[in-house]
Automatic annotation (TrEMBL):
<feature type="binding site">
    <location>
        <begin position="175"/>
        <end position="182"/>
    </location>
    <ligand>
        <name>ATP</name>
    </ligand>
</feature>
<dbReference type="GO" id="GO:0006355">
    <property type="term" value="P:regulation of DNA-templated transcription"/>
</dbReference>
<keyword id="KW-0010">Activator</keyword>
<keyword id="KW-0238">DNA-binding</keyword>
<dbReference type="GO" id="GO:0004386">
    <property type="term" value="F:helicase activity"/>
</dbReference>
<dbReference type="InterPro" id="IPR040766">
    <property type="entry name" value="Tudor_2_RapA"/>
</dbReference>
<dbReference type="GO" id="GO:0005524">
    <property type="term" value="F:ATP binding"/>
</dbReference>
<dbReference type="Pfam" id="PF00176">
    <property type="entry name" value="SNF2-rel_dom"/>
</dbReference>
<dbReference type="Pfam" id="PF12137">
    <property type="entry name" value="RapA_C"/>
</dbReference>
<keyword id="KW-0547">Nucleotide-binding</keyword>
<dbReference type="InterPro" id="IPR023949">
    <property type="entry name" value="Helicase_RapA"/>
</dbReference>
<dbReference type="Pfam" id="PF00271">
    <property type="entry name" value="Helicase_C"/>
</dbReference>
<comment type="subunit">
    <text>Interacts with the RNAP. Has a higher affinity for the core RNAP than for the holoenzyme. Its ATPase activity is stimulated by binding to RNAP.</text>
</comment>
<dbReference type="InterPro" id="IPR000330">
    <property type="entry name" value="SNF2_N"/>
</dbReference>
<dbReference type="GO" id="GO:0003677">
    <property type="term" value="F:DNA binding"/>
</dbReference>
<dbReference type="InterPro" id="IPR022737">
    <property type="entry name" value="RapA_C"/>
</dbReference>
<keyword id="KW-0067">ATP-binding</keyword>
Length: 935
């Protein structure tokens, strides 16, 4: 190659130098100036790492005067290139290559290949594999549901799949305790965020559940919510808090809630604080989630301030999720108030709602009759009595009044719960407690008056606890008591005096410290035998790997007791749950235990109406706890009778139609099967290891289906996505992830995988390669060009267009005659045959076949374009069939079921037309090129 002063060349040894210009030529050397970095470099003529930069027709170029133009023609005069093109004013301009901007980025496959910038064949294969994985994930029906660290329980997966795919979902989640409403909400939020249906989410919870939600969203769904409290808001404010007289508009001009996308805060933050309420209302939320929504104060005549605030948020936000107790726990009036938050137009009259509720029960009876083989005479209008039973039941489900806005699963309808076995341990009351009793608090928790741990020496429950743990060894045992000071004292005693491996879990610990304690307890090999928790241990955390629960004391609240038991008594528990209750004889503890055991039967069977029963007998129970007398037997008998009647009424009044609509096992099974198919750990682990090798991330074996990842000094990027400096341990096993919460659960939807694949896709790594291959019967020097195209469709994420039109990689393998051999020689087979080419040889090859390569590129482009039209036609047909069928269904349903919102129908129609428009404007994008020469 002859060098001429003024020509533009690039260094394939260091692409960061930018575009160079030849400034001096000597007999054996050439000097190149690189204006972008202010350097000059001199190279030997015979082995200079330089490649002539030649733009071609259609390329975009920029001049030193910041003029951008599209090349229309290239001429060479006196060894220098002249580029003619059209600028953004549609003016024709001709510029010399001397005028080109030095800050050129050579990133397209064509530019890099023709200018001698090659990657390893392994990187090329990695890029192709990444495109294939992205394509598969984009149109997966389980998209958005694969990344959660949860058990794949059918009722949870069904609800998340049903609600998460809706536009601006507005639903009530009212599953019974132990069925995982928080997990369902997290799965819905995760899917809405991952698929682009939502970007800004506000979660409102009671103060006591703030950290539980913060940890659950992070641990289970990798969602980093920002915790907002008054202290943080004060720190963010540039001015002092506004006086009452200041204008609200001034306050809302710059809402601090706009500073984060995902916000978590307590409802208490807004109580009696109209300024904070206004700030939250002025922020733009896509989805609002309210936990414990049944605590919102409401009456037909005077809704509470908290209820009015949530109602205002519900009107401002497109989506609204309410998590609440079951209707039988809160009453029909309160239940109506929650539904009114979701759709004030639909649920506007309590009296009308009460009438509809009676009709819902009749529809439920109809479904049972049809299932039994009898078609009722009073079918709703529009139903064909000759239709198959499954069709009739589905149509009744669709017409069910709250079936689309409410989901309620019950333990009676969901199988998989363990047996509860109660063990009672009467212990003598020490004299110190008999003399120290002051009030009901000290009667139920006799150690509470002590400000030190002196009570450990004489409380018989302590010695009993030590002996019981030693007897149960090596079984894992969860211990729960009401007070943090009690938990700390007991853990110190067990650890320091009894020699029992233990950990404490209480509200005084940071979130990280709580995680460590829980992880130490979960460790099967070197972990703690027991975890001693304060009452906070009955909230949020699940320890179903343990089978023994010790209740060191009892709470004066049936729902709280149920929550304690629910830490072990959950779906996924593999054995019976043994509940051990030590108690002091002839004390308030024994009386309360008898009332819970014989009156409510809470230790053997869950009761969703526990609080209602407690409130009915509270006035008679509390005096018995103070001083038990002969009236207790009567109280116990009446409680037992009332509880049996309540349970019977709940069973008979169960809305089985709503339960059917809250979990369709066949639908859930299909989604779970899709998740498990995508969860193939060998494929995912192999891909991640290859990705780490390409980017210079160190990985080593930790255990079966687990790796340790660490950053190195030789990484291609300064920071690998979501890889901390100290490294991270990851597992590809869902079972191991559920047992070891200190290990990250790596899925295709983990932020590390999502961002790393996007990083590779958006950069040039692996988009140009060169190789040789030995093929019998093909003359040496024959050239093959392997090209990978994908469909490029620019559209708003909220349209979910990739579901119908994913990347759809198009692979071509053009031979010397212009024939496509892609079907004859698959990509994976080709990877096993090709051999690498050293740099100097590769550069020499490119110089010799430069023109031939351009011709093959042009041919490959035309072949790929011919395939685009049927791809787009198929995508639009699929989109119109799927969305059109759903639109037709919703339009017909709205005539008989007013819970179908017109907004949802309008959005679906808009989405269909927008999707069609964007599909028609889609084009092909060249993703990678590999030049292969036979030897």
């Amino acid at each position: 190659m002859d060098y001429i002063v003024g020509q533009r060349w690039v260094s394939h040894a260091d692409s960061q130098l930018g575009l160079g210009v030849i400034v001096e030529i000597e007999p054996r050397r050439v000097t190149v100036s690189f204006p972008a970095v202010g350097e000059e470099r001199t190279y030997a003529l015979d082995n200079a790492p330089l490649t002539r930069l030649r733009f071609k027709e259609g390329d975009h170029i920029s001049t030193i005067n910041s003029v951008e133009l599209v090349v229309t023609d290239v001429q060479e005069k006196g060894g220098l290139l002249l580029y003619s093109g059209i600028d953004h004013h549609d003016q024709a301009i001709t510029v010399s290559e001397l005028e080109l901007d030095a800050f050129v980025q050579i990133t397209t496959p064509q530019q890099r290949l023709l200018n001698g910038h090659f990657d390893k064949n392994d990187d090329f294969a990695l890029r192709v594999a990444t495109l294939a994985h992205l394509d598969r994930l984009q149109h997966s029906p389980a998209r958005g549901l694969m990344g959660s660290r949860t058990s794949l329980l059918p009722h949870q997966v069904y609800i998340a799949n049903e609600v998460g795919q809706r536009h601006a979902p507005r639903v009530l989640l009212a599953d019974e305790v132990g069925l995982g409403k928080t997990i369902e909400a997290g799965m819905i939020v995760h899917q809405q965020l991952l698929t682009g249906r939502a970007a800004r989410v506000l979660i409102l919870v009671p103060q006591t559940l703030l950290h539980q939600w913060l940890v659950e969203m992070l641990r289970r769904f990798n969602l980093h919510f920002s915790l907002f409290d008054e202290e943080r808001l004060q720190a963010m404010s540039e001015h002092d808090p506004l006086d009452d007289g200041e204008m609200a508009l001034e306050l809302s001009a710059d809402s601090p809630f706009d500073s984060e996308q995902l916000v978590l805060c307590s409802l208490d933050l807004f109580r009696d604080n109209p300024d904070r309420q206004l700030q939250a209302l002025m922020a733009d939320w896509d989805l609002v989630v309210v936990d414990e929504a049944h605590h919102l104060h409401w009456s037909p005549d005077a809704p509470g301030e908290d209820y009015r605030f949530v109602a205002a948020l519900g009107r401002q936000s497109a989506g609204l999720l309410l998590l609440t107790a079951t209707p039988e726990q809160v009453g029909l009036d309160s239940h109506f108030a929650r539904l009114q938050l979701l759709d004030p137009e639909r649920f506007h009259s309590l009296e009308q709602f009460q009438q509809e509720e009676r009709q819902y029960r009749r529809w439920s009876e109809m479904a049972e009759q049809i299932e039994a083989g009898t078609v009722p005479d009073d079918l709703p209008p529009g139903l064909d009595p000759t239709a198959p039973a499954t069709t009739l039941i589905d149509q009744i489900l669709d017409r069910h009044g709250t079936g689309r806005v409410m989901f309620r699963n019950t333990r009676a309808a969901i199988s998989g719960f363990p047996e509860r076995i109660l063990h009672r341990y009467p212990l003598p009351s020490p004299d110190a407690y008999l003399h120290a009793r002051i009030d009901l608090e000290s009667a139920l928790h006799p150690e509470s008056p002590y400000h030190d741990d002196s009570w450990l020496a004489f409380d018989p429950r302590v010695e009993w606890l030590e002996q019981t743990l030693k007897r149960l060894r090596p079984e894992k045992v969860l211990v729960i008591c009401a007070r943090a000071m009690t938990a700390v004292a007991l853990e110190h005693y067990l650890h320091l005096r009894a020699g029992i491996r233990s950990a404490a879990f209480y509200e005084g610990l940071s979130i990280i410290e709580r995680d460590r304690a829980a992880a130490y307890f979960a460790d099967e090999v070197n972990g703690a035998q027991t975890l001693v928790c304060s009452e906070i241990g009955s909230e949020g955390r699940n320890f179903q790997f343990a089978h023994h629960l010790i209740l060191f004391d009892l709470p004066l609240n049936p729902d709280l007791l149920e929550q304690r038991i629910g830490r072990l008594d959950r779906i996924g528990q593999t054995g019976d749950v043994h509940i051990h209750v030590p108690f002091l004889e002839n004390s308030a503890q024994e009386t309360l235990l008898d009332w819970y055991d014989h009156g409510l039967d809470l230790f053997h069977e869950s009761c969703s109406a526990g609080t209602m029963i407690f409130e009915a007998f509270q006035d008679r129970l509390l005096p018995q706890l103070e001083q038990r007398d002969d009236n207790f037997a009567t109280l116990l008998a009446e409680t037992t009778e009332f509880t049996l009647a309540t349970r019977r009424e709940l069973r008979e009044g169960r809305d089985r139609l709503l339960e059917r609509n809250s979990c369709k096992p066949e639908v859930a099974a299909q989604v779970i099967a899709e998740i498990q198919e995508n969860e193939d750990s060998e494929t995912l682990q192999g891909y991640l290891e290859t990705l780490c090798d390409a980017y210079g991330v160190e990985h080593e074996h930790h255990s079966e289906q687990a790796l340790i990842l660490r950053p190195t000094e030789h990484m291609l990027t300064a920071h690998f996505p979501h890889l901390p400096e100290e490294g991270v341990t990851v597992t590809f096993s869902r079972d191991k992830a559920l047992a070891r919460e200190d290990i990250a659960f790596m899925t295709w939807e983990h932020p590390m995988m999502v961002d790393a694949m996007d990083m590779l896709h958006s950069t040039e790594l692996g988009n140009a390669a060169i190789a040789t291959i030995k093929l019998k019967g093909i003359a040496p020097g024959t050239m093959l060009l392997e090209s990978i195209f994908t469909v490029n469709c620019v559209a708003p994420r909220g349209l979910q267009l990739e579901r119908f039109l994913p990347l759809t990689p198009v692979r071509l393998l053009v031979d010397a005659r212009g024939k496509d051999l892609a079907d004859l020689v698959p990509h994976t087979r080709l990877n096993g045959l090709v051999e690498k080419v050293n740099k100097s040889t590769a550069l020499a090859i490119i110089r010799q076949v430069h023109l031939d390569v351009e011709n093959k590129m042009s041919l490959a482009g035309k072949l790929a374009e011919a395939r685009l039209a049927p791809i787009l036609t198929t995508a639009e047909t699929r989109m119109r069939n799927d969305l059109g069928a759903e639109l037709e269904r919703l339009e017909s349903l709205r005539e008989v079921n007013p819970s179908i919102r017109q907004e949802e129908i309008d959005h679906l129609g808009y989405r269909i037309e927008e999707c069609a428009t964007h599909i028609r404007h889609a084009s092909l994008q060249l993703q990678a090129l590999r030049l292969i020469l036979t030897t």
